[in-house]
Design goal:
Elements (H helix, E strand, L loop, with lengths): L1 H4 L7 H28 L4 H9 L13 H26 L6 H28 L4 H27 L12 H6 L4
Helix pairs in contact: 2-6, 3-6, 4-5, 4-6, 5-6
């Protein structure tokens, strides 16, 4: 973390390469989120509700989503998304953004992810009316993830714009006590 905190990562091409490739990976993750959504749902709340609550009136009498399947999905998603969001939001700390905006991004990101994951449970056991929450939280999470990735990519590609003083400048020398 010292490398990020003092801005040394800007001078380390390998660190910038690793971050850049991680962010490309995250863009691909973002694309597959949309593919998975499109294969399971639509933006029709009734279709989302049917996925979780089933539809006994359908031709094959689709049963509700089993609790075991939902728990398995939540188990993996909560851990994986938690680690992903920890990584992305931690990196946001080093962007040249106002602290209030950084805090809003962090809270918004985790809130959208929790609502996106929890809304399936709410639909299944609380009612079909929560389908709007699933759709909204999915869209919110995708917007926030894309925004984080793009902002971080910009920070990697333009490392001198990360809010830290350039090495050798008066501000950097003051921070190091050399002025």
């Amino acid at each position: 973390m010292r490398v990020f905190n003092n801005g040394e990562w800007r001078r380390q091409d390998l660190m910038r390469l690793i971050l850049g490739l991680f962010l490309v990976y995250m863009l691909l993750f973002w694309v597959t989120n949309w593919v998975l959504w499109a294969t399971k749902f639509s933006f029709d709340p009734a279709a989302v509700a049917t996925y979780y609550r089933g539809d006994p009136a359908s031709e094959f009498g689709a049963p509700p989503r089993p609790v075991e399947a939902m728990a398995e999905s939540s188990h993996m998603h909560l851990f994986a998304m938690g680690m992903l969001l920890l990584t992305l939001t931690h990196l946001v700390i080093f962007l040249p953004l106002p602290m209030r905006l950084k805090g809003t991004l962090v809270v918004g990101t985790f809130l959208c992810a929790l609502l996106e994951q929890g809304s399936g449970w709410l639909i299944r056991f609380g009612g079909a009316g929560f389908a709007w929450l699933k759709i909204g939280s999915f869209l919110g999470l995708q917007v926030v993830l894309l925004g984080l990735v793009v902002a971080l990519l910009f920070g990697v590609l333009r490392p001198t714009q990360n809010g830290n003083a350039e090495p050798g400048t008066p501000a950097a020398l003051v921070r190091r006590g050399q002025a």
